[in-house]
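Input set for joint prediction.
Command: fold jointly, output tokens.
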Amino acid sequence: MKKKLLLLQIFLMTSCTFLFAQQAVVKGKVTDNSGGGLPGVNVVLKGNNSGTSTDQNGDYSLNVPAASGADQVLVYSFIGYIKQEIAIANRTTIDIKLAADTQNLDEVVVVGYGTTAKRNLTTAIAKVDPTKIPTSANNNVSELLFGRAAGLQVTQQSSQPGGNISVSIRGKGDPLLVIDGVVLPSSSMEPGNGSVEIQGVNRGGLAGLNPNDIESIEFLKDASAAIYGVSAANGVMIITTKKGKAGRMSVSYDGSQSFSRNMPYLKPLKAGDYMLYYNQLSKDKYQADRNMAPFGNVASDLTGYTQKFTDQEIQSAGVGTDWLGQVLRAGSVDNHNVSVNGGTEKATYFFSGNYFNQVGSIKKSDLTRFSGRLNVSFVLSKIFRLNVNVNANRNAYTNPQAGWQAGGSGNQGFNALQAALAYPSNVPVYNTDGTFSQFAVTGNPVSLLNIKDKTKAQGLLANTSLDIDIIPNTLTAKLLYGNNSEYSVRDFYIPVTVFWGQLYRARASLAETRRQNQTMEATMSYKKSFGDWLNLDVVTGVGQYLEDFSGFSVETSNMQDAINTDNLGSATGPKIVGSYRGINKLRSFFIRSNFDFLDRYLLSLTVRRDGADKFFPDNKYQYFPSVSAGWKINNEAFMQDFKTISTLKLRASYGTTGERPGSVAYGAYGADPNAVTFNNGSVVYFPYRLTAFDNPNLRWPITKTFNAGLDFGLFKERITGSVDVFTENRTRLLSSATTQQLSIISTSPINGGHQRRKGFEVSLNTENVKTNNFSWNTTFNVTHFKNRWVERFPNDPPAQYGNVNDPVGGDIIYVYQTNGILQAGQEVPAWQPAGASKPGNPLFVDNNGDGKLDFNDVKSYSGIPKAIIGFGNNFTHGKFDLSVFMYGQYGAWGNDFTTLWGDPVGLLSGNQSGTERIKDAWSTANPAGTLPGAAYNEAAIALDAGLDTRLAKRDFMRIRNITLGYTINSGGLTKYIKSVRVFADVQNAFILTGFKGVDPEIQANSIKGGPAPYPMVRTLSLGLKANF
Amino acid sequence: MKKIIIASILAASLSISGCEKNFDPVLTGVLSPANFPKTEADFELYALQAYKPFGSKWGYSDVEYQNMFFSPEYGHLAMFDLPTDQMNIFTEWGGFWEFFSKGDFTFLKTQGKQSHFEKVRYITRMTQVIADVEKSTLSDASKNRFMAEARMGRAWTMYYLLHMYGPVPIILDASKINTNAESDLTRPSRESYVSTISEDLRFAAEHLELSPSEYGRFNKGLALGMLTRLYLNEKNWAEAEKAARATIALGKYSLVTDYAGLFRESSEVNSETIWAVNCDPLSTGEAGGNFNALVMYCLPGDFKSTKVNGGWASPSGVFCPTWAFYDTFDPADKRRNLLIPTYTDKSGKARNRTNMRGPVLKKYPDESTPGADLQGNDIPVLRYADVLLMLAEAINQQAGPTAESIGLVNEVRAKHGGIAALSATATASKVAFNDAILRERGWEFYFEGIRKIDLVRHGKWASALEAAGKVTHGPSELFPVPQYVINVGEGKIEQTKGY
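tokens >
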């Protein structure tokens, strides 16, 4: 069937190619009111099948029967513009101007290897227009996307400068990223810092791209992604950058200054409180450990107990050191953009430069970026047009190690921010002799700021393409070569003067990573109108995609602070050297045919055939077909009487996509990363071991997506919107999964498992008020999805308390339920775990009433929001504009691991202070406490699932931007400047949430001691945008 | 016409570049099975895998941070010393420390894939290595050398797994590798399991070198000593006696007179230690060499030592012997000197029996120069004294107390403890002497990863724990099979009795 489909397409293409014969040619340019060329305008000979459409510059060329040229009429039509009919009258050149039809404005949407009018779309593609989103305080495209389109889930994982923001389509993984036709990695390539367990960086990808350079961003959410076949199971994010426009040179400056303040953070205990609660809880602990009343039957005897802090000390302690204040600070951003744009009919250019300097809200946390872009296009001849896009960037970061909560070494491995929470307020910053104070095994928070941790990254994205007009506006071809190369180096040094990891030792790590992505594609496109009854648009192509990556690192110790990583050779400690390299190749062939019958019935067929080098020959290649159809109901005759309905289109798509294999099907022997040493470390071997068996049957995973949607427009498009429902089946998943229990290799690439994602999304745009002087429009979108297992991997059955079809992976949280705190003297329920039988422990709930606590009592909670919402309002009044945009989520659960800072176990370890949350802990002095007390030690209970004590709803609604602008485009100033807009923007103005951790969005993993995520900031930006 | 030419060129270029040939995989940083292992040097590197579980580091990356047998956490000391009558219960860190110290292993049911059970995969791996060496074109001498290391590793791992879980499913037939047989988790009989270990050890004993030039490699004495341990614990006294005598007959080993020196870095290589984890003083316990971090687990947080400014735990070390055990020593016994009954803490406060949970275990002094917290002291795993005491026990079990067997025990007492020979009552009967040997082993081998196995062999594990106040010990001296294994076991693998 798939092969027949392909044959049909090839037949259609070739047969159409031979339709043209010897004819006269009419040429011309179609422009809009401003004089700019209008691309994509349909030019059809009236009453005839032949037609064409204008190219990127609005030029067209149409063959007309030479003999009948005299009385022929050309029909120019383009969505959003008023249709015009012009008699040819024996002319060979006809230039016309089309007037915008403000009643029926339609967008052009990039669909991958082409564009289409939104009204002709048969698939679910979301478009985000970055020019409508405030960019002042934002260095990364991802930051513009929160809540901006239905089907997007955008989550701020880390709020450090350049921190990772995960962008996902319908909750899937990282989408395939395509910038101006070039496939790029969407992830960052942050080098590590060796074996030092203070990682702390979670960088986002796309760091080299200036948000101000972007023309549009499209998300291919359903089978529309199938044109990208192999790599598109997570959907596709297509970014198109700004291009030059022929005409007078236009210069614009866009600059802003931003001021940021930390949002409310965890509240450390004041000095007196720390002492008070330490005393109270340690007394409880003393009694509990000895089974003394009220924790046990032994009579209370405190003779062996000494209170650590005297009452007098507590009373005179006061507030103490503001450790957070020593580490946190106010932040700022300077952002300056200049762009120049213009050109002639022979050449157009767009040039831009950006300087972005962010001072982070933790000390020693910065980002400075320089980036430049040059997009030029030359008409070489009638047939050839050369396009060159170049983007270069240099990013420099200072890392505060708080951007990511990693490292399991506990208190000794804390970074400055964690240390600031761990240090009790009664400890001064400096000892009386001027040296840094030290508490327990943790380094002094202020001294930890002396750790050097810098990342430098640079990237160059160059992309050259040649457009070939074989038959103008009908048969065109494109050759594309794109190359993205990135380099990144992390320079990490702990001075010998800094106590960290229980040592004063100079430790250095210098690591660099490189990667290169190449896209080579040749495409041909054929567009033809057959009178009024059919518009045909076929594109076909081949491509080869290459990625190679490599890295190099050196880690060592014991050297001069003044020299540090400048000369690693001078270090006397052992030098650990590492390097790696990898290459992946993909080859593809693809074809898409779009049929538009009678401007009512739309059909689109695509087939992509992809090959990956990492599979065995019989399984290298895979077809990824898709089909989609649309019915423009509003163009039916029977709809002409329903004037309120201006757009009504029903569409459906079904298609398959694959996933770029991270796995290799070929067997291998690799060096063990861990040495075997003899003679006390002086003889070192790295054993070689089998790391993979040959796996000739390994195949592409297949994702099958079905999507049905309805696009509507009411009251002359005052109200527009879309509704989509989707089901996606991910089958024969390919993952490194658990092997059979007695296999040599514990995990290995396996095809297995099946997941099903279902959901719906709605988007709505309304123009609520529209007068000459005032307008108000509203945009709203909501997304809902679920993702469940249908079938598990063969050797990875669900845990005992799980079900086969539970939500996938981290989207589900399993917990034992608790209900209050066990009070002194209260009867201990029979099912209470032995390790939790003393007062102050949480009371466990025997869910199934069988009198014992086991996996049958575990309850599950979904980590996926029931709804992801974006909601914006824009107002204009005269020269003022105001927009308020918010986004949020509802119905997701999560664990708030910052509660570890309020866990008596941490406080009583003597190694850390904590937060005010400890005041809610149960103690003999605070029997109304709602949190577990000193006798509770979760690790000691050793249950197979967690407790619900830290379970929290992650619902929130964040006011992302409030922007007020004033535009001057008349008066004396305009002699020099076309227009000026001044604006003020508040980003993250406030958040409505019941979540008590740092932020419901930011990742804060469970780590020993407690996570201290980089705080969220509120930013005020004042800016100016001028066009010259 | 020109257009048609261009079109054809394009079409041609499309079809050529669409060609699906010449598309071989690019594999980097790995060796292909087509040409590895082939040479002697290849097999040298390949067979070295045998050593992987027998080190002391934080973890290794075969599985999810699975611990080595001699790691400070989840290693032989935590598994075989903490859950005995000699050590205090340690609750401060909760989790596995608390449960190991209480002798309750139930919690291991929910353990993930860092579980030692995962080492069944290592057994399969060694089976593959042995088969690959066997069918290679190397000389017989080289084959035997590599196979001896692989079989030593396989046998020793099987021995430890036996003392954790009982007989575990294993693959000994290389033709079953990478087939569905790897899902058959039926436990073999103890008899066949033990005979596999003994065959491997005999082969290893025959072909391993007596004194390998690289200190730390497996050696003949280790194979014979482990064979002795195996038979002794299986109560095959006759074979145990034979193996012990064979070890002695190697003529290489003798007891040292400085017991403390066995654990010091300066004298870690000596006439008595048959095999020790060779530790690198510069190692951090990561990817490099083995480390010895035990001082951090033994010293209380307020104990200022030679170099270390206190251990990681408070108020006592994680490994903290009981006063009761301390009191069983003859006060003159030099072996007791490694238990510190009094000290002055960092704040100047006097610490002694009245305010200490137990004596401070200072078996591995922190003396090496580099680093502040980690040591290079090798960790002895098999000593000649053990062979002598095992021989004494094996003889006694067969023939009762004999002059030879009593003499063996007294030799150890005299050389290591500097104390008098056993009393007449201690050697009065087979039972009395057997008990005396167990006591002697306690004083001699505390904190060397042996005690629990000794107690189990003597049938005294549960009673000894209860006598030491560890009344909440678990239902079995063996570990439960992790639930995830049961889940994939298709009902074939039996859970350890009691769980």
